[in-house]
Amino acid sequence: MSLPAPASQPATPHVLDLIALSLTPFAWRRTLGDRLRAGESPRSVLDRWLSNPRLNRDGVDRRTLVSRASAAVARAAERGLHLVTWDAASYPASLAAIADPPPALWVRGDPGSLQSRAVAIVGSRAGSPYAVAVAERLAGDLASRGILIVSGLARGVDSAAHRGAIAAGGQTVAVMGCGADVMYPAEHRDLADDVERTGAIVSELVPGTPPHKPFFPLRNRIISGLSRAVLIVEAGEKSGSLITARCALDQGREVLAVPGNVLAGRNRGGHALIKDGAKIVETADDILEELGIPCPRQAMSTRSPNALEDPVLAGLPAGEPCDLDVIAERTGLTTARLLPRLLELELAGFIRRVGGGRFTRI
Fold first, then answer.
1. Which of 13, 129, 170, 264 pairs as cysteine with 165 (C-beta 3.0–4.6 A)?
2. The domain spanning residue 321 has which CATH number?
3. Number of domains into which the chain is organized
């Protein structure tokens, strides 16, 4: 199939059948993907589901599904969304290869961004200042080296990852647990607009679908499916980010994790992944090395032109190791505010840790 027609143009019966398949229950998706990859037509696959009372428990008919598919195309045209079906040349190859690929994707922004080499960064919605700083810094470093950042536009770590990529002038993609034209959470409207300008907002759910709790774990397979690796930044024992990690492992993706404070207990899920073999990540170079991507580190002077004016750096004379108490006294910052900033400067290459929990400026 050629590149998908813009959503403003009439959809073919073939495309409507694929959209109709996306309206069937999620439990059937793995079978659906196998049949489509085997060469069975969308119409035949749809008829197979419609005619099976064990699968089609509500007795839905073809006319109803196709009518809903047509309504979705019309709404997408009104909202300026692009439609990318699974057998289109523009459908991301990495996503097409997973066990349960979405039959159709609805894209707000640039569909071409989905083809880029990508890393997913996900984590706690109630991310600590440390986690937010780490996610933003790593996303910025990766994006500045041409890596697409994929996340879920959620509060906390996800939104920090998007912001970091945007601030670095890179590309980012947000995968939604609602329609691509529906804003959730509402306070991220401005961030969503920035994501759309730099990359894309994506959903497998037809336009207009409101957020619903079961949709969010399901979208995690798309986040990992679009990416070569998934980085977990702070995840509790029951964090939804661990679902993304499991999806990544099932899909043969790399799973990476940032270590956190063992006393706070906020990153037990991430530490469990590390115990199970996930690579520990401290810098973007760790990620690129794991993926076998040669990307030279940028010169320090171009990364933060005002770095030497930073109060933390000013409180760290070059070559003089200082502990947290000394730095806090010199800068007037509390430990809660100081730790994320020290990590950020360390990742940027301006300071380094030395023995005894001390830091020194390079």
1. 170
2. 1.10.10.10
3. 3
* 3 state DSSP class of 283: coil
Which residue do the tokens 């073809």 mark? Answer: 62
Q: Helix, strand, or coil here: 64?
A: helix
Range of the domain at 310: 300-361
Residue 208 is encoded by which pair of tokens?
A: 């207009």
pLDDT greater at residue 285 or residue 324: 285
From residue 179, alpha-carbon distances to 72, 289, 321 in Å are 10, 35, 52
As beta bridge partners, residue 123 has 233
Residues 6+ apart with CB under 8 A from 232: 122, 123, 241, 242, 244, 245, 255, 256, 257, 258, 269, 270, 273, 278
Query: Alpha-carbon distance 165 to 288, whole Å?
Result: 16
* Cα gap 39→75, rounded to integer Å: 30
Whether residue 327 is contained in a domain is answered as yes
Give the model's pLDDT for residue 357.
66
The answer to whether 262 touches 271, Cβ cutoff 8 Å, is yes
How many CB atoms are located within 10 Å of the residue 270 CB?
30
Q: Give residue 166's identity as a one-letter amino acid code.
A: I
Q: N- to C-terminal Cα distance for the chain?
A: 55
Does any domain span residue 215? yes
221 in any annotated domain:
yes
2 lies in some domain: no
Q: What's the rounded Cα separation, in Å, for the pair 349 and 286?
A: 14
Identify which of 318, 98, 312, 130 has the alpha carbon closest to the alpha carbon of residue 218. 98
Q: Are residues 74 and 143 in the same domain?
A: no
Q: Write the pLDDT tens digit of every residue in 110-165.
A: 999 999 999 999 998 988 888 899 999 999 999 999 999 999 999 999 999 999 99
The token pair that represents 345 in the structure block: 């400067």
Distance CA 202, CA 182 (A): 11
Task: Say whether both 327 and 287 belong to one domain.
Answer: no
